[in-house]
Structures are given as structure tokens and as C-alpha cells.
């Protein structure tokens, strides 16, 4: 999206064009978004998927404790049945040998 498109998507926030442009520039410098020239404007897109970003946040959160096992156990105990099953499938996939 261009800065103008992002601004329109955030219209309910009543943000100045320069504010949107500054934030996107800072996000690009932090490599949260990628940007490419399109004529005189920049076109922005996420540098990674939302799932990758959330995964990174979860990993960083685990780094905040000295007892990672206890934190993981508490996290797993808070899951519902579908989430626990999704975790089991993901673990099983990582344990399969790769060709």
C-alpha cells in the first residue's frame, strides 16, 4: 500500500499524511515493512506474515523468564482443545524427518 492508501484505511483515526509517512518510514528502517519505489511514491508491504510476527513475540516473551519450562506449561494449560491439537500437529510435523 502507498502512504495515501494506508492513510485512507486509517481514516477513522484522523491522522496527518506526514504522520503516516513518518511511521511507515520508521517501520521500514526497523525492517517491519518492506518498501519499493512506485513512480514518486513508496509502496509498503509487511516484511513477514502476522503469524511470524506473533511467533517472534511469543519467543521474546519466553526470554523474559528464567523458568521457560514453567512458562510453557502454563501456556499449554491455558489452551482449549483445538489449540492443543494444533500444537500437537505442529510438534509432530517438526519431528518428521525432512527429505
What does this structure look like?
This protein is an alpha+beta fold and 99 residues long. It contains five helices and two strands; from the N terminus they run H-H-E-E-H-H-H. The chain has helices spanning 3-9, 17-29, 50-62, 68-77, 81-95; strands at residues 33-38, 41-46. Strands 1-2 form a two-stranded antiparallel sheet. A hairpin with a 2-residue loop joins strand 1 and strand 2 (41-46). The longest helix has 15 residues, at 81-95. It is elongated and about 50 Å long. The protein starts with a helix and ends with a helix. The model has no long low-confidence stretch (mean pLDDT 93). Belongs to the BlaI transcriptional regulatory family. Keywords: DNA-binding, Transcription, Transcription regulation. Pfam families: Penicillinase_R. InterPro entries: BlaI_family, WH-like_DNA-bd_sf, WH_DNA-bd_sf. It comes from Nocardiopsis terrae.
Major sheet size, sense and barrel closure = 2 strands, antiparallel
- Oligomeric grouping of the chains: single chain
Shape type: elongated
* SS strand fraction: 5-15%
Helix count equals: 5
Strand elements, count? 2
Please state the average pLDDT score: 93
pLDDT < 50 runs, ≥5 residues = none
Radius of gyration from the CA trace? 19 Å
Helix/strand/pairing class, anyone? alpha+beta
Helix content: 55-70%
Q: Span between N and C termini? A: 38 Å
Strand order of the biggest β-sheet: 1-2
Order of helices and strands: HHEEHHH
Amino acid at each position: 500500500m502507498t502512504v495515501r492508501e494506508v492513510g485512507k484505511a486509517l481514516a477513522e483515526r484522523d491522522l496527518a499524511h506526514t504522520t503516516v509517512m513518518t511511521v511507515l518510514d520508521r517501520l521500514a528502517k526497523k525492517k517491519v515493512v518492506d518498501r519499493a519505489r512506485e513512480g514518486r511514491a513508496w509502496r509498503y508491504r509487511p516484511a513477514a506474515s502476522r503469524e511470524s510476527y506473533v511467533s517472534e513475540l511469543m519467543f521474546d516473551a519466553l526470554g523474559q523468564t528464567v523458568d521457560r519450562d514453567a512458562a510453557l506449561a502454563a501456556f499449554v494449560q491455558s489452551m482449549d482443545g483445538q489449540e492443543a491439537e494444533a500444537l500437537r500437529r505442529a510438534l509432530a510435523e517438526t519431528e518428521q524427518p525432512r527429505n
